[in-house]
Automatic annotation (TrEMBL):
Job description of the protein: Specifically methylates the guanine in position 966 of 16S rRNA in the assembled 30S particle.
Name of the protein described by the UniProt record: Ribosomal RNA small subunit methyltransferase D
Pfam families hit by this protein: Cons_hypoth95
Enzyme nomenclature, EC number: 2.1.1.171
InterPro entries: DNA_methylase_N6_adenine_CS, RNA_MeTrfase_RsmD, SAM-dependent_MTases_sf
Entry superkingdom: Bacteria
Native source organism of the sequence: Oceanobacter antarcticus
First-level EC class: transferase
Length: 183
């Protein structure tokens, strides 16, 4: 029996800096690139330590694992694809990440059933599935919460009135933005 192909990601900074982790080659799974993660965590350098983090549509878990490596208090990973969720659990075990939990199922369903607030939310849904807007609409956030979004440039999400943009970058293929909840 042949193993399914795997790919690797590298943790950029923090406790597990330079560690490499495997993730399955699953259709639509695209970990946030190293240089983009570096930019994001430069933006968040004073906000991650001690934060409660939600990595919705986690995929490889690159963003949430990076947050754990940099001192996040705990991270909830939401991942629908079974192979990706299993590998994410294995990777967290390899890192001995005790302040993390993986929920293997539909992120939108989880958001609707768990209206708990987080300090930092990563929203990087699979492209072409129209999941960003429903996820934005399902979030429960308190003032001061930070939200990172990554999405195709062709989308024009309706951002909530109380989300103030802190930083943003756009490439030909995608946009990434950091917001803070104002009230």
């Amino acid at each position: 029996m042949s193993k399914s192909p795997t790919q690797q990601l590298r943790i950029i900074g923090g406790e597990w800096r330079s560690r490499r982790l495997r993730f399955p080659a699953v259709d639509g799974l695209r970990p946030t690139m190293d240089r983009v993660r570096e930019t994001i965590f430069n933006w968040l350098q004073f906000d991650v330590a001690g934060a409660r983090v939600l990595d919705a549509f986690a995929g490889s878990g690159a963003l949430g694992i990076e947050a754990l490596s940099r001192g996040a208090k705990d991270v909830v990973f939401l991942e629908k694809h079974p192979k990706a969720a299993i590998q994410l659990k294995d990777n967290l075990g390899t890192l001995n990440a005790t302040h993390a939990q993986v929920w293997a199922g539909d992120a939108l369903l989880w958001l609707q059933q768990n209206p708990q607030p987080f300090d930092l939310v990563f929203l990087d849904p699979p492209f072409g599935k129209n999941l960003l807007q429903p996820a934005i609409d399902a979030l429960t956030l308190l003032p001061g919460a930070l939200i990172y979004t990554e999405y195709e440039t062709v989308l024009a999400p309706a951002w909530p009135a109380n989300w103030q943009e802190r930083k943003s970058k756009t490439t030909k293929e995608f946009c990434f933005r950091l917001f803070v909840v104002t009230d």
